[in-house]
Amino acid sequence: MRYVGAASRGIRLPVITKGADLINIISDTIIAASENERDPFVIRDKDIVGVTESLLARSQGNYVTVSDISEDVRLKVPDGDVSIIFPILSRNRFHLLLKGIVNGVRGHVRLFLSYPSDEVGNQVIAPMNFYLNEDKLTKETFDEKEYYEVFGANKHPFTGVDYVELYKSIDPEKVSIYFANNPLAALSFSKTVIVASIHTRKLHKAILEKAGATVISMDEICSSPVREGAGFNEKYGLLGSNYTNDISVKLFPRDCDKFVEELQADLFKRTGKNIEVLIYGDGAFKDPVCGIWELADPVVSPGYTDGLNGMPKEIKFKYVADNAEGKDPTEAVKEAIRSKDKMDKYGNSTLGTTPRRMTDLIGSLCDLTSGSGDKGTPVVYIQGYFDSYLDD
């Protein structure tokens, strides 16, 4: 009898640097792990390999410097003052990008922060502070002077950083900070706007362009190399980038679809098993303590094999068991699973099975398994994910 359902294993790899033969290293390591006497496992069809995006980007050498960002901004952004709207509050995700952008703009920079938090939940004003004092604001858009007068300094509950002060410190003479939730507020100061939001960027860009603005979004900056050897990402630009050191950032990886197909083919050649592969970044989950939605990347998975398309179709196990109506609950569950393809997806038997894409679910599982610390497991091996209670 089978007692274990889905299982997720972090796979330890050597430290990966630019030019590494990543496909060969991953295949070698998975096979060695499966045969290791300490934690052996059997490689099966429909297993899943998750590879963290940073591993692929590092092997590609997909980095840009602050100077590269500045140069691309000078090439793409018109002369004069510029408004930047709605970035996230982050040292590793936005601070260096802002430094590069500010250095590249040839006029004054007005940075608009959304309030009371950014789009992923980082607070620029603590919720209770905002609730108690918002009636003191003179209008919906306000400057940094009024911000400090009404709400005082606000330090991030986890990092202890005052992000208003941090972003201002990049160039106090050139940067002014404002607070707004309407993207059109930026047009009061400049008809050129850089959209720094992540998941709402297309909406914000459309609103501003309809109003006659010249708009550049973060996925358009460093979307092609500004010099020989510089990194780039033709689809996401600076989105998904991450701090490397004080002068450079790592971009989201390129050619992800090609990579997953080649890794899948290599694993099949060496094991004879059809294994699905995806690249994953941030998981799509929200921290229940600080209220931060972890998805600072533009997508959970920038590349995956065809078998991971779509959404799971599942029954609500406990609902069927609790409403067996005289039947043996175990048999009722098994019968429901056998006939689930005929079920109404809006019916009670599927109630509570939140419709989410498999890549978002599996990528989140990978992110939680590998973590972002010192576990040293940038590859995750998942088994039994597609199995049901009927599979032995």
User: Class by helix and strand content?
Assistant: alpha/beta
Strand content: 5-15%
Distance between the termini: 7 Å
Q: Mind telling me the CATH class of the largest domain?
A: Alpha Beta
Total strand segments: 14
Largest sheet: 6 strands, mixed
Description:
- The protein is an alpha/beta fold and 392 residues long.
- It is 31% helix and 14% strand.
- It has helices at 22-35, 53-60, 66-76, 91-104, 127-133, 144-151, 163-168, 201-210, 256-271, 317-322, 329-338, 358-370; strands spanning 7-11, 48-52, 63-65, 82-85, 109-113, 142-143, 175-179, 192-195, 214-217, 242-245, 248-250, 276-280, 303-304, 379-383.
- The strands form three sheets. Strands 6-7-5-4-8-9 form a six-stranded mixed beta sheet. A five-stranded mixed beta sheet has the order 1-14-2-12-13, sandwiched between helices. The protein has a three-stranded antiparallel beta sheet with strand order 3-11-10.
- A hairpin with a 2-residue loop joins strand 10 and strand 11 (248-250).
- The longest helix is centred in the C-terminal third of the chain and has 16 residues, at 256-271.
- The radius of gyration is 24 Å and the shape is globular.
